[in-house]
Amino acid sequence: MPFEKLQRWHLKWPDLSLRIKCLLLISFPAAATVVMFGVANMVAARNATSVELVNQALRTGLEIQSLRAAERATSADARAYFITTQEPYIAQARSSLAAFDAARQQLLRLTSGGRAQQQRLQQIAALEDAREERMFGDIARFREGSFPWEQVRAGLHAVETERDQMEALMKAMDSDNARDIETLLPRIGSLSAEQGAINGICLFFGLLGGATMTFLFARGITKRVARLQQNVTRLVDGAQPELLAGRDEIGAVNEGLIQVAGVLQRQRLALDNSLDGIAEVDASGRYLWLNKAYAEMAGFSQIYKPSQIVATVQQQHRIKVEEAIQRMRTTGRSEIAARIDNPVLPVPDVAITFLATGENPDSTFCVFLRDVWTGKRGNAALIRAKDAALASNRAKTEFLAKISHDIRTPLNAILGAADLLAQTPLSSDQTEYVSMFQRNCRRLVALINDFLDFSRVEAGAVRVERVPVRIRETVDDAVKTFGEAASRKGVTLGMEVDPAAPECTLGDPLRIQQVLVNLLSNALKFTMTGRVDVKVKVARTTGAAEQLRFEVSDTGPGIRLEDQDRVFSQFVQLDNQSEGQRGSGLGLTICRHLVELMGGEIGVVSREGSGSSFHFSLPLEAVEPVLTDTGAAEASPPAHLAGGELIRILLSEDTEDNRLLMEHYLRDEPVQLRIAVNGQEALDAIQQGEQFDLILMDINMPVMDGYTATRLIRAWQHAKGSSTPIVALSADAMREAVCASLEAGCVAHVAKPVDRETLLKTIRRFAARRAANELGRTIPVSDEIMALVPQYLAYKEGQIEEARAALVSRDFGPIRRFGHNLKGTGRGYGFPPIEELGKEIERAAAQANASRIAEQLDALHRFVTETATERVVQ
């Protein structure tokens, strides 16, 4: 019967969970340990009791010896007194009696559990008391002289008799105590042996139980895990996993493997019968697996079986395959067109797609083949053309970026030195030579800028913004750029803005200025006498949509009618242009692309000999004016920085010529300039606690580049709760470089060559601003704007109520326009949170999300109320 129960329990063992099996595995050793500990404690307690009894018996023996010694000393002192009649012996006798009494009391405590010993001690006490009384009585009579020697001898004889009686009693006590010790010592040895035996038995059964459970665990789990591993191997090889008995976690995993095997089998069947060729290739390019379609397209047979992917295509396409694999490792996917290398079958053209299956460079990847033989050659040609175009465009962009950087770096020093030289006393001939340097350097810079702009436009890398633009200020800045050049030539430069034009409209101010600057540059280039005018008008199209029309007219030689259709084409230079008037032929092409990107149109009206009028129109969408702190203060920048406290600037620049140029630019300014020759030195200066109002950071430097230094400085200062504006100075003016500078943490990217006016303007703009202020509820604004802030906040109360009324009627149009207005004006008035709330309101209105709109309106109302209250308190 017990065997049958054990057999049933053994059959149920695989169904137990791993947790229960582990608990059972450790329970037997744990139980044995607990039992061994308990029994050992019991035996140890008994052993300790016996040891204590032995120790007590030993102490009893010592006290008996003390009692005997005290009794002997008392008798000796009494005899000495009667013989010598010296009084000190009386005192010694009393001391010995006290010692005798102390030893007797100690023996009473030690033998409290022994009746016989207690009786003997009582007899000894009685004898001692009688002897003491008789001895001191005899001493008193002896002192009086009434105690004859015969009586003294009789008294001493009686004392000796009592002493013999006490000695007999003490011997009896000593003998009993010795027997107790002899009885207890074997018992202690027996208990120690018993304790060792019990510990050994418990240890044996604990180890036996642990070994038994370990064996069961190994039999029930380890073997099952081994079979599970075999099933995983079978799954990898494509075979069906075997069933595994038991419903524990291992059995559940095995059931999952069986289900996965079914899914994989169905997928493999689908892949094998796919019309496209599919293969899996390892990191070295060797085939691991391929389907039937791939084998047919690649011409695989029993004789022809290339092991490498590159060996599948013809020799001239193998480099393309390797390059495509490298691109796939970087981008995750690549595609090329190639021709299969098959010695037997007709040679097919195929489209090959490489798809990465993981981020690890050593991981496998998939290859897909599509037959583009008859009827599909066009697709392969398009793919090849696309690959070639992309490669060409990348090469051109990289070439332009490198050439731009290599030219701008020395050009920065040349142009800067020429500008500095022009400010020194020069002869007329020297002045002309320096002017020649400046003109040609700036012409070279303009040429580089045109090529870079055209490259960005052609690559589709130019992005336009839609932000509030102050029309008059934007046009006025562009016109003032050419004020000195027009005055030098004796050409009148005029500007007229239609009173009907809004003060502010949505657009891209930088791109509008770029188009105006290009058109004004061309107009002044070709106008020797007369005037150049810029006009801004409000025009209405046939669809009744209003547009803003910009016109730049001149009194130059004009353009022939047959040339007007091609002036906006790239690299076009008209025949009637002189050598000094010839440019890159890209300026008007760039203008056309930029205007079209902004949703407008550009054109020209001209007559040969009667001047030209270039015009472009942009969609007009008026918005509430946005006031900024860079308005009037920077409209006509002074020649020097404002006085006051010293401006601390850290210049990180590796080129000695550029460092010398910056020092000369700033030598007469209230600037304390600190030089760092690489990014590491700049980072060290910040980490050592040096304080700066502005950091000018070159990008390409040894030891540590500007991007890395900027990121590390930003991280360091963020941890310290501070922030210094960092402006990138780089000869690389490509958009990618600008974006990289801003992403690294720079507040601006200034392209070299940098003239003195640009440098001073950059210092004025950023040196006094600290990023810590920009992270708060407000940002610094000019006094002019500050005066308008109370009115701006007051208007918001009514506008919020209007938006809430529109929300009740589910009219989301006005709410969306209100959010758009907030987004365009909040930062201009110094309130970034209003800008962010405006974005959320506009987005929620576009999605008709009423609850989100209500939340944002409440948040806006709280912010406006709190801000207005704070300003009143201040």
Describe the 3D structure:
By secondary structure, this protein is of the alpha/beta class. The chain is built from 26 helices and 17 strands. A 5-stranded antiparallel β-sheet has the order 2-1-5-4-3, sandwiched between helices. A 5-stranded mixed β-sheet has the order 7-9-10-12-11. It has a 5-stranded parallel β-sheet with strand order 14-13-15-16-17, with helices on both faces. Residues 577-584, 626-638 and 769-776 have low confidence and may be disordered.
Secondary structure: number of strands: 17
Widest beta sheet: strand line-up? 2-1-5-4-3
Low-confidence stretches are: 577-584, 626-638, 769-776
What is the CA-based Rg, rounded?
54 Å
Specify the number of helices. 26
Largest beta-sheet characterization = 5 strands, antiparallel
Shape designation = elongated
Distance between the termini: 96 Å
- Beta percentage is 5-15%
**Percent helix:** 55-70%
State mean pLDDT (0 to 100 scale): 75
Task: Briefly note the structural class of the backbone.
Answer: alpha/beta
In short:
With 874 residues, the protein is α/β, with parallel strands linked by helices.
Please tag this protein with its features.
17 strands, 874 residues, five-stranded mixed beta sheet, five-stranded antiparallel beta sheet, elongated, alpha/beta
List the helices and strands and how they pair.
Blueprint (H helix, E strand, L loop, with lengths): L1 H11 L5 H67 L3 H23 L4 H30 L4 H89 L11 H24 L4 E5 L5 E4 L1 H7 L19 H14 L1 E7 L9 E8 L8 E7 L5 H46 L5 H31 L8 E4 H11 L1 H7 L2 E6 L6 E4 L1 H18 L4 E10 L5 E9 L6 H4 L22 H11 L3 E6 L5 E8 L12 H4 L11 E6 L3 H10 L5 E6 L2 H9 L6 E5 L7 H15 L5 E5 L4 H10 L3 E4 L4 H11 L4 H4 L8 H26 L3 H14 L6 H15 L3 H24 L1
Parallel strand pairs: 7-9, 13-14, 13-15, 15-16, 16-17
Antiparallel strand pairs: 1-2, 1-5, 3-4, 4-5, 6-8, 9-10, 10-12, 11-12
Helix pairs in contact: 2-3, 2-5, 3-4, 4-5, 5-6, 9-10, 9-17, 10-15, 11-13, 13-15, 18-19, 23-24, 23-26, 24-25, 25-26
